Structures are given as structure tokens and as C-alpha cells.
Amino acid sequence: MSTELQRNTIVGFVTSICLSLLKLAAGIGGQSSALVADAIESLADTVGSVMVWQALRVAARPPDKDHPYGYGKAEALAALGVGTLLVGAAVFIAAKSLHEIVIPHEAPASWTLIVLVAVIVVKELLFRFVMRGAAEFDSDAARADAWHHRSDAITSIAAFVGVTLAIWGPRLLKIPALVFSDEVAAILASGVILITATAMIRPALSELLDAVAHDMVDKVAEIAREVEGVRCVEKVLVRKSGSGYHVDMHLHVRPDLTIQHAHSLAGKVKSILKSRIPTLTGVLIHVEPEVDGDAAAVTAAISGNTARGTHTAPDLTSE
């Protein structure tokens, strides 16, 4: 899994480097402030790709003594870092564009439009390529990597519109002020980048703060209830860590079950859950005796079994 995601990230990294240098050279040579700003945003994407790549390598490490839950949260940290970089890029683009608006300058060179079209096509293809891998392995870091390719394509589209108006607007519409259209487009694009960054940062923060994965909770509880011998399922907690999930749950079983039988049932539930939901990396099951509202009857059943030398399972945790 991690090998394929890392390969996708490397492809995005190399491509982003080439496109960033191309846009920067075209922006400087073609006198387009929007294209230069777009290049800066692409450089932020490239740094983000490096962060994602390193995070995927760390997240792929197996659990150890000091990290028994593994290193999956490295992906969320990378997603948070990439989102923060995009926020910084958006602020920089907006500030630079506002500065350029107050300085008189010539329209960009018309050949810069060809560069922008090529960038838009390549970046959209990269988004689809990386997003397929992110969806397959449910990786927030890879998903963040894909979205910063999409955000780069969006800023390039905005730059294309702005540069087009800046080049042809003053000539065809006789409105000299349209020469500043590329700066205006860059400012609008910075707002889109901020929205994308927010959408990226929110799930990363939720994972880092161990927010409950509600959809997975319902799925886990439904599967556990189908297992023969399980009387009730309660207190199901599921938290995401990288591309995997950790589950903590309580099962109610017959109060007269022996510890051995209760432990076997918990193991069976765990095995079925992990086979039905491969992304479960850890399942901790706490077994409790079923209580039907008649506490005295349950207590009597437990006491009777104990008197006969049979140990019951009023409180058992199975990993």
C-alpha cells in the first residue's frame, strides 16, 4: 500500500518541480504577476509533496514498544502541514497582487497563455491520478497531496482568465484598467486556495484530536451484532490513524459463560470485524455480562456458577 502511495507522491513531486520552474520563468519573462504568483503556489505544493512522501514512509512503520498504535497519525500531521502551507501561499499571492495593482505596468506577453493551458491540463491529470490512490487506501495525506494539485490547476485557470483579459481587454474593449485583470484573478484564486486548505485542515485536526469516526462506528456495531452469542453492543469508539482505524467496544454476553468461552467469543468478533473491514488495524473488546433489568437474577446466576467452581466473565477485556 505505502509503496504505491509513495510512488504517486514522487510523480507529483517531480512534475510539480518542473511546472513551478516553467511558470516562474514564463511569469518573469512574460511580465505576468499572476503567473509568478501561481509559480509560488506551485512551489508550496512541491514542498507539500515532500512532506506527504516523508509522512507516508513514517506511517508505514509497524507498531513498536514506544508506539503501540503505530505511526499512522504522521499522515494527518502532513495533511495539516500542507494545508498550512496553502494558507501561507494564499496570503502571499493576495498581498503580492494587491501590491502590483497600484504599480502601472504593461500587459503580459500573449505566449504565457500557452504555458498556462499546458499547466492546467497536466495538473488536472495529476489530481485524478493521485486521488485514485488516496481513495483506494483511504489516506488523508495522499488525498491532501491530490487536492493541492487541483488547487494549483484552479489558480492556473484564474491566471489564464486574468492574463487573457489583461492582454486583450485594453485592445478590444478599450478599457486600460483591464491590464490589472491578472492580479484580480490571482486574488480570487487565493480565496479558493484558502477554502481548499480549510477543507484539508479540518479532517486532519479531527484525526489528531481522536474524533469519533461515526460512519465506521455504525458499521462495526452492525457487524458485531450479527455474531452468534453477542447479546448487546455498546460503547463503540472508532478513531482514525492514517489509513487505518482503531476500535474500542463493549460486548454483552450471557452471564453464565466461562471466561474461556467469553474470551473465545470476543476473539471471534475481532476476527470477523478485521476480515469484513480490512482497514481495522486494532480492535480492543471489553466483555460484560448481559443485564436484562433483573440484576438479582443475574447475580444469582453468577453466584450459582461460582459455587459450582465455574468462573464467569463479568469483566473481561480481549485484544
Descriptive notes:
The chain has 319 residues and is an alpha+beta fold. The protein folds into two domains: 2-208, Cation efflux protein transmembrane domain (Alpha-lytic protease prodomain-like, Up-down Bundle); 214-318, Cation efflux protein, cytoplasmic domain (Alpha-Beta Plaits), CATH 3.30.70.1350. Helices cover 67% and strands 10% of the residues. It contains nine helices and four strands. α3 packs parallel to α5 and α5 (140-173) runs antiparallel to α6 (181-208). The chain is elongated and about 90 Å long.
What secondary-structure arrangement, pairings included, does this model have?
Elements: H1 2-29, H2 33-59, H3 73-101, H4 112-137, H5 140-173, H6 181-208, H7 214-225, E1 232-241, E2 244-253, H8 259-276, E3 280-289, H9 295-307, E4 316-318
Parallel strand pairs: 2-3
Antiparallel strand pairs: 1-2, 3-4
Helix pairs in contact: 1-2, 1-4, 2-3, 2-5, 2-6, 3-5, 3-6, 4-5, 5-6
Helix content: 55-70%
What is the CATH architecture term of the largest domain?
Up-down Bundle
- Major β-sheet strand ordering: 1-2-3-4
Under CATH, the topology of the largest domain can be stated as Alpha-lytic protease prodomain-like
- Count the E strands: 4
* Share of β-strand residues: 5-15%
Number of domains: 2
Coarse shape: elongated
